[in-house]
Write a structure and sequence with these properties.
Number of strands: 14
Number of helices: 11
Order of helices and strands: EEEHEEHEHHHHHEHEHEEHHEEEE
Strand content: 15-25%
Radius of gyration: 22 Å
């Protein structure tokens, strides 16, 4: 049994405009000490998935169905007090905007100490000592002196480190990091990611990393789930997904990454935009943007299936790669005829489309559809 098991998670937001289908049958597992990445463009449902895990979905949102099992217990069946004892203690979250996550009216140290006192029952002195120890462990210089500083006296990188220290205050088994490097420069981003990796390794803490940056996923994660319009479209080990992407959306994301030494004058893009989560298109949600779409794609909603066998995917088989595409269930006339090219000069990949230039599929010059590399 995995430490975290999310099964068929459906989150809805009931607005005046209609019902926003934020996540749709999202299922995945995370083992102890594992780093699991969730990637996708803005609006894909990444942050909603994390907030649902923490039971922090506010009105008008509701977790409509599904299960979230942590160490065998369904978190959705716990009452408020039971969930509060788990939240911040066994499961902690690092929010993407540290500046708003910290209360400007209280010192940084006192906010960390509050969590220590609440969950661990430490007295004032012990909580202060623990907070200083945590600030020092995440790389805050002169931690004892900075304990009494207010958030505005910390730089952006230091604020993010302080939020991580707060999340680690009770030695959680699972750390949810929701875009922890947003708005940080690349140097500080690298330091924060290195810190999270060190924490995961030394404390055997599982990490659920939310990001839109595929480079971060490649550097940090063991497995990854790609979300599109609230649907999981691909799940698998990071290395397999990067070297053999199975879903056209994943291919499109990867081909849009800038690379040093790349001779392209313009980056490839995925045409169109993500659909309205209130008015979802019929069939495959990605078909209006997909260069391989056929008539069946507008009628049949693909299931997440094993990319090799076409059988329904089992998320407990962590070494397998799964994708939600009709190409793997024999319901398309054509094939996903892109190929992966590994550059000798760097440990990155590029996908080269060898599709015929007829119809609406991408051409070999990469100007239509963004799939050729």
């Amino acid at each position: 049994m995995a430490m975290l098991e999310v099964e068929n998670l459906n989150v809805r937001f009931y607005t005046e405009e209609g019902v926003v289908k934020a996540t749709n049958d999202v299922s995945y597992e995370i083992e102890s000490g594992e780093c699991f990445g969730i990637v996708g463009e803005s609006g894909a449902g990444k942050s909603v998935t994390s907030l649902a895990l923490m039971r922090l979905i506010d009105d008008p949102g509701v977790i409509e169905s599904g299960e979230i099992r942590f160490k065998g217990r369904n978190l959705l069946e716990l009452d408020h007090e039971e969930m509060r004892r788990i939240r911040g203690n066994e499961i902690a979250i690092v929010f993407q905007d540290a500046q708003t996550a910290l209360n400007p009216a209280y010192t940084v140290g006192s906010q960390i100490a509050e969590a220590v006192q609440l969950h661990l029952g430490r007295d004032d002195k012990a909580a202060r000592d623990r907070s200083i120890e945590l600030l020092d462990s995440v790389g805050i210089p002169d931690a004892a002196e900075r304990y009494s500083d207010y958030p505005h006296e910390f730089s952006g990188g230091m604020q993010q480190r302080a939020v991580i220290a707060m999340a680690l205050s009770c030695d959680p088994d699972l750390l949810v990091a929701d875009e922890p490097t947003t708005a940080l420069d690349v140097t500080i981003e690298a330091q924060i990611l290195e810190l999270l990796e060190e924490i995961s390794r030394e404390r055997d803490t599982a990490v659920q990393l939310i990001t839109h940056d595929l480079g971060v996923i490649a550097e940090f994660c063991d497995r990854v789930m790609v979300l599109y319009a609230g649907h999981p479209v691909e799940v698998g080990p990071v290395e397999e997904l990067y070297y053999e992407p199975k879903h056209p959306y994943t291919v499109g994301l990867m081909s849009s990454i800038p690379r040093i030494g790349d001779g392209r004058e313009r980056l490839d893009t995925i045409p169109g935009r993500m659909p309205d989560l209130i008015e979802m298109p019929p069939g495959c949600n990605f078909h209006p943007r997909c260069p391989y779409a056929e008539e069946a794609c507008a009628r049949i909603e693909p299931r997440l299936v094993d990319a090799e066998t076409g059988a329904e995917a089992d998320v407990s088989e962590h070494a397998r790669q799964a994708a939600a595409c009709l190409a793997y269930t024999g319901e398309l006339d054509g094939e996903l005829d892109y190929e992966v090219r590994v550059r000798e000069t760097a440990d990155t990949i590029a996908s080269e489309d060898t599709a015929d230039s007829e119809g609406d599929r991408s051409t070999s010059d990469g100007e239509d559809g963004g799939q050729s590399r």
